[in-house]
Write a structure and sequence with these properties.
alpha/beta, five-stranded mixed β-sheet
Length: 433
């Protein structure tokens, strides 16, 4: 019977495939480069300059001809007359002839005739400074080869080459490269606006007092925070009551967004009218997914001011909401932004306690992952009920207990989908003891 029950469900992978099959990449927009962090470049970027534009000093020192330093040592310095000084941002006005040198600062253009830089610490500069701070000669205490401490023209970027490809995710390094090329703005795939609607007559807003049978609306804020975390822009619609009229009114407020996420109202309860409302407004599929928590879900397209609006219906229990968001909403948002990598980082760990699987679904167990003796270990955050939101507070990963198994035993190896990773979590584990 259990095996037949599981067969009636669709897998997590099937659900993800169906969702991503209906999600489109959004249009590009031009923005200041600092506002483009973690967005996807929507065009190829070519360089109009070489970087660096000239051969220049890689450190403070003396520009020399390497051949003039042959035999130099601390006991037998090579003494050279100093004919000029060049600061960064200045032109090189004098040429180095045989047996001369020029004092030079990091980033300053290498003067004609020079092919190396001797750092200050390899000279006897302090001994040769005149009272007024001027230098007439310097002792070189170490040989250098041609090219030593020189940054050559175009060694980073050559003029005319493609530096960043269409589809590149802009991290701080890419933002810096754009700035170095003189770009103040960039064309990127825009961030999706995601409408968020919590449903249920039992919900009240966070700033309202609780009365009998009421609870605060936490799902809206966890979903909004997740949307922000993965690059979207949350549009909070508030709470929709368990009536057709109330839900329609709230949904209307989000029709010009890029995606609608609801929480609650997709199970088999008598008062779950979300499926009725959404089915009447478009093409919605109701699924039973082979996962725990997060089994009841819905997805489809509803008619909106922009044509068709993707809708994802998440379960109402707070942990179910978060786990289902990670598996389904997160990759949908990433695809809208033009990203192509949807999987969370995963590692293999040793589970430190038994986990039973009583109904054959895939279990996403909230765990703390730490490293001991060169191995990653995971232990449960405590009770695993789908209403225990603090089980997610302590978790840095979701241990995946495969479907169609009886569970895992202490010492078994399992895959953990990492939610985040930091050495701080080891401290958290100590606090739990």
């Amino acid at each position: 019977m259990l095996r037949n029950y599981v067969k009636l469900m669709i897998s997590v992978e099937e659900a993800v495939e169906k969702i991503l099959g209906l999600i489109e990449v959004l249009d590009p927009e031009e923005k200041p480069i600092l506002d483009c962090l973690e967005q996807v470049l929507a065009e190829d970027v070519y360089s109009g300059v070489s970087i660096p534009p000239l051969d220049n000093a890689a450190m403070d020192g003396y520009a020399v001809r390497a051949e003039d330093t042959l035999g130099a040592s601390e006991t037998s310095p090579v003494v050279l007359p100093v004919v000029d000084e060049i600061a960064a941002g200045c032109g090189a006005y004098k040429e180095i002839n045989a047996g001369t040198c020029i004092r030079i600062m990091t980033g300053a253009p290498l003067p004609k005739g020079a092919n190396a830089v001797v750092p200050f610490e390899d000279t006897d500069e302090k001994e040769h400074r005149l009272p007024l701070g001027e230098l007439s000669r310097i002792g070189i205490l170490s040989e250098v080869r041609s090219g030593t401490n020189v940054r050559f023209r175009g060694e980073d970027i050559q003029e005319g080459v493609r530096v960043l490809a269409n589809g590149t995710v802009l991290r701080p390094a890419e933002i810096g490269v754009l700035a170095s090329l003189g770009y103040s703005s960039a064309m990127v795939i825009r961030r999706p606006v995601v409408s968020i609607l919590a449903t249920g007559d039992e919900l009240v807003e966070v700033d309202q007092s609780l009365t009998a049978g009421k609870i605060h609306n936490s799902n809206t804020y966890t979903i909004a925070a997740e949307v922000l975390r993965y690059g979207g822009i949350p549009l909070i619609l508030g709470v929709g009551g368990d009536s057709v009229e109330a839900l329609n009114e709230k949904i209307d407020q989000g029709l010009f967004s890029d995606m609608l996420i609801t929480s609650g109202g997709v199970s088999l309860g008598n008062y779950d009218v979300v499926k009725e409302v959404l089915t009447n407004r478009g093409e919605i599929s109701l699924w039973t997914i082979c996962m725990k928590p997060g089994k009841p879900s819905a997805f489809g397209m509803i008619t909106s001011g922009n044509g068709k609006l993707p809708h994802l219906g998440l379960p109402g229990n707070p942990v179910s909401t978060m786990v289902a968001f990670e598996q389904f909403a997160r990759p949908a948002i990433l695809k809208m932004m033009g990203k192509s990598v949807f999987d969370k980082p995963s590692i293999e760990v040793i589970i430190d306690e038994d986990v039973r699987n009583t109904d054959g679904r895939r279990i996403y167990t909230r765990v703390i992952v730490t490293k001991r003796g060169g191995e990653y270990h995971a232990r449960l955050t405590g009770p695993q009920g789908s209403g225990i939101l603090t089980s997610m507070v302590w978790a840095n990963g979701l241990a995946i207990i495969p479907e169609n198994t009886a569970g895992v035993r202490e010492g078994d190896r399992v895959i953990v989908q990492m939610l985040n990773w930091s050495e701080d979590w080891i401290v958290k584990e100590e606090k739990l003891r």
